Amino acid sequence: MLYNLLSKLATAFRRPRAPALVLPIALAGLALAAAGCGNSVPGDGVANVDGEVIEKRDFERWLNAAARSQQAQPGAAPTQVALPDPPEFRKCAAARIRQPAQPGTPKPNEQQARDLCRQEYGLLRDQVIQFLVSSQWIEAEAADRDIEASDGEVDKMFDEQKRQSFPSDPEYRQFLQASGQTERDLKFRVRLDVLSNKVREDIVKGKANATDAEVRDFYNRNKGQFGQPERRDLSVVLTEKEAEAKRARDAIEGGKSFAEVAKRSSIDEASKKQDGKLTGVAKGQQEAALDRAVFGAKKGELVGPERTQFGWYVFRVDKVTPGSQQSFEQARETIRAQLRSKKEQDALTAFVRDFQKEYKEKTNCARGYTIAQCKNGPKLADPASPEAQGAPQGGGAPPTQGGGQSAPPTQGGGQAPPSGGGGGG
């Protein structure tokens, strides 16, 4: 997934569970934070961003909303939710102990429950500080660029998200009650999203053009990305010893089918289950010796025994699907879009480095509230680093239930015997 430098508030309204604080701006999807030294933080504040004080009462209100959003299930009443109660966490621990244990998981004792509550509180505290500090950052940056979010723009985006998430007004009201947020809170977040989108547009304006010469040069250097290699469908038998492979070949030449011989003699269980079929094999996917033999063979030719690191192969090429190549004209617009996207990303990454440095110097946090965005906090991750690119969406907001998928393993590299259907596509 491409990590956008200015993340959307796409999860502002979630029906399956009330949303945790989602940082709508994250300027680079980085974990935003705040720090101390410089601007003083008054006793009733948690941070000071260039003279703008974030008050404790606002922090506590958003903290309670974050706790409700994270813990409340659909339809749960606020009284059922255990809010954080530092420093002892007695109520939170008691609520945890009362909760039914998951099957196979023992209930925590009081100390374990307190430790869990303390850990969760620390995470929520940092996320809320990140949200509030980054809100100040984006508003200050927007003001510097003379960018505004009109009430009409905010209302339009708010109404669209509300309509998509809640079919009825009672469901929306139930969500507000369970999440501990008000409509004003939600519109505040939507306003930040509008501002962040406009800031992003301003950053990349005029910096994402891709000339015809750049597009053609990319095509010439990356032709392989715009074509499909030749693929071959095989019938195979794999044996441990050469003598067994010779007997398998003799049986096939004598009229036995590959399916019958593979079932009796092959040690490759995957292709054996497919009647000896191995489909969609592209050059370079198989062990080197087998790869050379397969792509040196003619269609219909019985080949083998061929020695490989996995054993002895007898095979036949049943089908050859020629490779294809997109022309420059066919690939032109796809390449142009890729180049524009990269230029936008580069412009945003470059901006973020300066942005973070500038606003971190202007941000002081009270003791006990310091995070990476604070002047006295830990070092911020470089926006181009793997750590930053893999940071949670929303600059440190609790992770949402996601659709991340693991790519299926592919054949090749001589790591294992080829299996039926491997490399097909």
Q: What percent of residues are in strands? A: 5-15%
> How widely separated are the two ends?
22 Å
Largest beta sheet: strand ordering? 5-4-7-6
**Strand elements, count:** 9
Low-confidence stretches: 1-38, 73-81, 386-425
Mean pLDDT: 78
Total count of helical runs of at least 4 residues: 13
Sheet with the most strands, sense and barrel status: 4 strands, antiparallel
Number of domains: 2
- Radius of gyration, CA atoms, in whole angstroms: 30 Å
Helix % is 40-55%
In one word, what is the shape? elongated
Order of helices and strands: EEHHHHHHHEEHHHEHEEEHEH
Class from helix and strand fractions:
alpha+beta
Q: Multimeric state of these chains?
A: single chain
Please provide a written account of the structure.
The chain is an alpha+beta fold and 425 residues long. It has 2 domains: 45-208 and 337-389, no CATH class; 230-322, Chitinase A, domain 3, CATH 3.10.50.40. The protein is built from 13 helices and 9 strands. It has helices spanning 56-71, 90-98, 110-144, 151-165, 169-179, 183-204, 212-221, 242-253, 258-265, 269-273, 288-294, 328-361, 386-389; strands spanning 45-49, 52-55, 227-228, 231-239, 277-282, 302-308, 311-321, 324-325, 363-365. The chain has a 4-stranded antiparallel sheet. It has a 3-stranded antiparallel sheet with strand order 2-1-9. The radius of gyration is 30 Å and the shape is elongated. The protein starts with 44 loop residues before the first strand and ends in a 36-residue tail after the last helix. Residues 1-38, 73-81 and 386-425 have low confidence and may be disordered.
